[in-house]
From TrEMBL:
Keywords: Membrane, Transmembrane, Transmembrane helix. GO terms for cellular component: Golgi apparatus; membrane. It comes from the Eukaryota. The keyword Cell membrane does not apply. Residues 311-367 are annotated as: Disordered. PANTHER family: PLACENTAL PROTEIN 6, TRANSMEMBRANE PROTEIN 115. The chain crosses the membrane at residues 21-40, 69-98, 110-131, 143-161, 182-200. This is Transmembrane protein 115. InterPro entries: Rhomboid-like_sf, TMEM115/Pdh1/Rbl19. It is found in: Membrane. It comes from Microctonus hyperodae. SMART domains: DUF1751. SUPFAM superfamilies: Rhomboid-like. Its main location: membrane.
Length: 367
């Protein structure tokens, strides 16, 4: 009751802040925020109602499976929060999603993303605790674990922001820069630390991790775009890109192996990249399907090396020829004796007339 009185005194201020956050957003965003806030108020109104709402709205692994098969809890668990700070975090996340992601995707796509991520996060989290029960045999994991809240969707929003603005710098530290590409893994690590010290429940890091996996798979392979394509096959949106640079090579090997296995058994189709050459900038290099980019780069380096060696050899040939001339042995000169006449005789040309020849002879006799 003290919590309700404190909330009642702060209602005008909270209403002003929420109005500023949710202004110019779609009806779906406002609906999600209102339902989350109302469910929290009803949950905190009485202890009996809180227990009943927690049992009926949250996902309980033992009740989600047959014979109980409470399927509706996979749709309602995301609207239930039992702490006010979690309600504030959920409303801020949904409001920012409406401000940032909804103008790019549209209201329908954002609601599709919201539904897919939350439903699959609830099912996967229940299967995770079922696996722990199979390993330990502890029935508390089936009937005393209640999965609720928007932690899976918060993880999905972090992945979506990473996809839209991967290189946006959030913080500069002495170790390095923190960008949007570091947010999903960093948030999950912090959730684990908060769970270890007792500030969070064990279900919340589980939901956050499942939210990262589900949202990445949907955005990577299945999201439909306005141009008719599906997914996002950018190199900066691979699964290995969520990890530090040191861990990316082994993570890439494992993820590519898993993807290849799914393609082979038919659970996933082979990715074929398409590119519109009409809008291609000049000097763009395109890697065709089936060709490894590293192999192409290696071949290009080999070709450039061979070309540079050939050019260097051609450039060195004139110098080698001149050097061979300098170092070649000098042969002895050949002397040819040419007899010299004492009196030069005029040459008779067949083109000169005979009269000129006789005149010259008479002149020589007179002298």
């Amino acid at each position: 009751m003290a919590t309700m009185k404190g909330l009642g005194r702060n209602i005008p201020y909270l209403r002003q802040q929420f109005a500023a956050l949710l202004g110019n957003t779609s009806t779906s965003v406002k609906f999600i925020c209102i339902v989350v806030l109302l469910s929290y108020c009803l949950n905190r109104s009485s202890t009996f109602l809180s227990e009943q709402m927690t049992m009926v709205m949250s996902v309980t692994p033992g009740y989600l499976l047959p014979p109980s098969f409470w399927v509706w809890t996979a749709f309602t668990f995301c609207f239930l929060e039992i702490h006010f700070w979690e309600v504030c975090v959920n409303i801020v996340t949904v409001g920012l999603c409406g401000k940032l992601i909804e103008p790019l995707w549209g209201a329908m796509e954002m609601m599709t993303f919201f539904a897919i991520v939350n439903i699959l996060v609830g099912i996967l989290s229940a299967l995770y605790y079922l696996f722990l029960y199979m390993c330990s045999g502890d029935t508390d994991l089936l009937f005393h674990i209640h999965i609720h809240g928007l932690w899976g969707y918060i993880a999905g929003v972090c992945v979506a922001v990473k996809q839209i603005m991967p290189d946006h710098i959030l913080l500069k530290t002495p170790i390095g820069k923190i960008t949007n590409r570091n947010i999903p893994l960093t948030m999950w690590i912090f959730s684990l630390l908060f769970w270890i010290v007792g500030l969070l429940e064990g279900t919340q890091p589980t939901m956050f991790f499942n939210g990262i996996i589900v949202s990445w798979i949907y955005l990577r392979f299945y999201q439909r775009h306005t141009n008719g394509t599906r997914g996002d096959m950018a190199d900066n949106f691979t699964f290995a890109s969520f990890f530090p640079n040191v861990l990316q090579p082994p993570i890439a090997v494992v993820s590519n192996t898993v993807h290849g296995f799914f393609v082979r058994i038919g659970l996933c189709r082979k990715v074929v990249r398409r590119f519109d050459m009409s809008n291609a900038p000049p000097g763009l290099v395109i890697n065709l399907p089936g060709i490894d980019p590293q192999d192409s780069e290696r071949r290009r380096q080999i070709a450039l090396k061979a070309l540079s060696e050939r050019l260097s050899k051609d450039h060195a040939r004139p110098w080698q020829q001149e050097r061979s001339k300098k170092h070649s042995p000098v042969s002895n000169p050949v002397s040819i004796s040419i007899p010299e006449s004492s009196t030069p005789q005029p040459l008779v040309s067949p083109l000169l007339p005979q009269l000129n020849t006789n005149k010259h002879s008479q002149t020589s006799m007179n002298t």
